[in-house]
């Protein structure tokens, strides 16, 4: 019966190690999710900036065309 306790203790120890590893991996996964969300926010901000720049570019193009009508 002593061997049963010995194996039981070893199994419990191994389970603690596995559980600790799982928890660490879950924390890493959560950190990755946060970083992905931050990156997506940055991407969206850049897309918004590009849309604004495209609008400004069209306006400048129209101005060039209008002013160009006055030159010979």
Biggest sheet features: none
Average per-residue pLDDT, rounded, comes to 93
- Unreliable runs, pLDDT <50, ≥5 residues? none
Helix fraction by DSSP (H/I, runs of at least 4)? over 70%
Based on secondary structure, the structural category is mainly alpha
- Overall body shape: rod-shaped
State the helix count.
Answer: 1
Distance between the termini: 106 Å
- H/E series, N to C? H
Number of strands: 0
Instruction: Compute the CA-based radius of gyration.
Output: 31 Å
> How much β-strand is present in the residues?
under 5%
Q: Would you give an account of this structure?
A:
With 72 residues, the protein is mainly α. It has one helix at residues 2-68. It starts with a helix and ends with a helix.
Layout: helices, strands, pairs:
Elements: H1 2-68
List the main descriptive attributes of the protein structure presented here:
single chain, 72 residues, mainly alpha, coiled coil, rod-shaped
Structure summary:
It contains one helix and no strands. The chain has 72 residues and is mostly helical.
């Amino acid at each position: 019966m002593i061997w049963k306790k010995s194996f039981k203790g070893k199994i419990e120890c191994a389970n603690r190690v596995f559980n600790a590893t799982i928890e660490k991996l879950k924390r890493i996964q959560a950190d990755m999710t946060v970083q992905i969300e931050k990156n997506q926010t940055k991407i969206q901000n850049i897309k918004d900036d590009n849309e604004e720049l495209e609008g400004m570019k069209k306006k400048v193009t129209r101005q060039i065309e209008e002013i160009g009508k006055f030159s010979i």
